[in-house]
Amino acid sequence: MLLRVILLACLPVRALSCEVALALTIDVSSSVDVGEYALQVKGLADALELPSIRNVLIEADARLLVIQWSGVNKQQVMIPWTVMTDIPTIQRFADTARALPRAFRDSDTAPGDAIDFSVRQFAEVQDCKRRVIDISGDGPENAGGETRLASARAFAQGIEVNAIAIESIGIAISNYYRKVVITPGGFVVTARDHEDYPRAIAEKLYREIAKITS
């Protein structure tokens, strides 16, 4: 018995099992048409199938959640928190993401409400060292609570907010997200249009997770 205790004491102590929890928060407001919605969910699924993304997710023992959002009281968890333990698990998550139905149609854009809703979901993953909201969208706030205040509330709870700004002309949305949406130390990845979203989500996921495992 004493030998067993000594051997157990000599084993390395594992750090917190979860390095990062990512809430992937997707805009489905009225500015997003059927084809653009399909590009977003396909882009997320395609990114999760990249070996570079899979490797860092597994190494970080990451948790992923998918939320769709639009206007006031229109936020819905589409895929619950899932532990990225291995490639089959990530593939199932990607397959589910690719086939997701659209939660809302013909609604306003309330990114502040989406952030507040996302913050509440982290109560289920309190063992994670970092908590991050990934919010994507193609338009500024036109409904709901003030986005700047929602972002500040998230930051006060130790939650990061990063963003993908989907642009059609210029960089207006990217600038809006930098000024209003992301938290201090956060970043914006610009997708030139919805067709550029797969590249942008892959870049963003890798940037958020790889710095933990490097």
Polypeptide structure, described:
The chain is α/β, with parallel strands linked by helices. The chain has a single domain (24-213), classed as Rossmann fold, CATH 3.40.50. Helices cover 43% and strands 21% of the residues. The chain is built from 8 helices and 6 strands. The protein has helices spanning 2-10, 34-48, 51-59, 87-98, 111-121, 147-156, 172-181, 197-213; strands at 20-27, 63-69, 75-83, 130-137, 159-166, 188-191. A 6-stranded mixed beta sheet has the order 3-2-1-4-5-6, with helices on both faces. Helix 7 (172-181) links the parallel strand 5 and strand 6. Helix 2 runs antiparallel to helix 4 (87-98). Residues 1-16 have low confidence and may be disordered.
Write the layout of secondary structure elements.
Blueprint: H1 2-10, E1 20-27, H2 34-48, H3 51-59, E2 63-69, E3 75-83, H4 87-98, H5 111-121, E4 130-137, H6 147-156, E5 159-166, H7 172-181, E6 188-191, H8 197-213
Parallel strand pairs: 1-2, 1-4, 4-5, 5-6
Antiparallel strand pairs: 2-3
Helix pairs in contact: 2-4, 2-8, 3-8, 5-6
